[in-house]
């Protein structure tokens, strides 16, 4: 009798897991199925210009959701250092200010721009403030979150997506991973050499 109950519980657990996986896949995949790569997206920069990712074909992209009032905000300095080291070799860092995690971003782009220029002398492109999760997420983030899967989607500020020269999603790095860490640098150098 006990073994039958255990078996029923196991069957229910397997069924629920499969159902949840199917629902997650169905909910995430259809909107992005027609999108071949990141080069199909664009952002508005903090200066209100259009940044077409297709114009960056042949460049390796590190796209990072940023925030001005976060414990990880000092990563701006590391991102700037990384950009300065590798931009001549083909790396473009793109900062995407977002209020999604703890409301730790200013509400106005001018404040973000002033803050990053004054405190970190940022020279890499910053976009306008965008959502990076949920239904309101910028289309690039809907696509990349789908590519990264549930575990690879942003959980906090300074989550990093690596995109290759052809606009293909490569990998992600979490908020706690320094932009200057060996694994980030190794992954970027590998893509730059291709």
Strand content: 5-15%
CATH architecture title of the largest domain = 3-Layer(aba) Sandwich
Largest sheet: 4 strands, mixed
Strand order of the largest sheet: 4-3-5-6
Q: Would you mind describing this structure in some detail?
A:
The chain has 5 helices and 6 strands. By secondary structure, it is of the alpha+beta class. It has 2 domains: 34 residues; 156 residues, 3-Layer(aba) Sandwich (Glutaredoxin). It has a 4-stranded mixed β-sheet with strand order 4-3-5-6, sandwiched between helices. It has a two-stranded antiparallel ribbon with strand order 1-2. Helix 2 links the parallel strand 3 and strand 4. The longest helix has 27 residues.
Secondary structure blueprint with pairings:
Blueprint: H1 2-28, E1 42-44, E2 50-52, E3 60-66, H2 75-86, E4 91-97, H3 109-120, H4 139-152, E5 160-163, E6 169-173, H5 182-193
Parallel strand pairs: 3-4
Antiparallel strand pairs: 1-2, 3-5, 5-6
Characteristic key phrases:
two-stranded antiparallel ribbon, single chain, 15% strand, 5 helices, Glutaredoxin, four-stranded mixed β-sheet, 40% helix, 194 residues, disordered N terminus, alpha+beta
Task: Give a brief description.
The protein is of the alpha+beta class and about 190 residues long. The chain contains five helices and six strands.
């Amino acid at each position: 009798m006990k073994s039958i109950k255990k078996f029923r519980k196991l069957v229910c657990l397997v069924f629920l897991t499969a159902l949840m996986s199917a629902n997650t896949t169905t909910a995430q995949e259809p909107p992005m199925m027609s999108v071949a790569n990141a080069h199909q997206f664009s952002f508005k920069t903090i200066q209100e210009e259009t940044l077409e990712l297709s114009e960056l074909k042949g460049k390796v992209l590190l796209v990072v959701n940023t925030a001005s009032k976060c414990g990880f905000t000092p990563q701006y300095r590391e991102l700037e250092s990384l950009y300065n080291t590798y931009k001549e070799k083909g790396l473009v860092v793109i900062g995407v200010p977002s209020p999604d995690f703890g409301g730790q971003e200013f509400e106005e782009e001018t404040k973000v721009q002033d803050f990053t220029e004054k405190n970190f002398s940022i020279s890499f492109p910053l976009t306008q403030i965008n959502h990076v999760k949920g239904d309101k997420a910028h289309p690039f983030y809907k696509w990349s979150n789908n590519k990264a899967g549930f575990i690879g989607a942003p959980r906090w500020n300074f989550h990093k997506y690596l995109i290759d020269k052809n606009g293909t999603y490569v990998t992600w790095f979490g908020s706690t991973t320094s932009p200057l860490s060996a694994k980030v640098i190794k992954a970027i150098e590998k893509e730059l050499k291709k």
